[in-house]
Amino acid sequence: MTTAPTPTLARWFEYMDSDDPDRVLGMIADDFVMSVQFSKGGGESAEFVGDRAGLVGYLAQREKSTLVHHIDVGVTETGHEMVLGRTTRNGAFEASFSAIAQVDAAGSVRRLLIARTPEVSFG
What is the rounded CA–CA span in Å between residue 52 and residue 88? Predict the structure, then answer.
């Protein structure tokens, strides 16, 4: 995983890939809002939305320590971090993802938008 130039998202996905992904709850601002667009492929998808409670619900339904996020391209601009990456399972491609985080002056995530699909590979 790349740690620069998107240190917040790099840490976010490092936590998500660990045995304790709930650590991301310590990274969010009081006014946090998120949307995760999650495609399983073949036109099947789900959206996870909300504030802290929405993130807690998303974390509760995820598989732990099975996927690895790889950030392939990242940029930081004016309090926003944006990445394009891929997830792998046992070293094999699973899905592409993009993520955008708005980060406040204290380094907390205020807004988070993630989209993933197994249908498109940038490799």
Answer: 27
Element (H, E) at 50: strand 44-50
Cross-strand partners of 36: 48, 114
Backbone φ, ψ for residue 20 (5° rounding): -130, 65
pLDDT at position 4: 58
pTM of the model: 0.93
Say yes or no to pLDDT of 45 above 90. Answer: yes
Distance (Å, whole) CA 88 – CA 48: 21
Strand pairing partners for 62? none
Helix (H, G, I), strand (E, B) or coil at 121: coil
Assigned token pair, 96 = 């592409």
Distance CA 63, CA 65 (A): 7
φ/ψ (deg, to 5) at 120: -130, 125
- DSSP label at 15? H
The third-level CATH classification (topology) of the domain covering 7-117 is: Nuclear Transport Factor 2; Chain: A, (3.10.450)
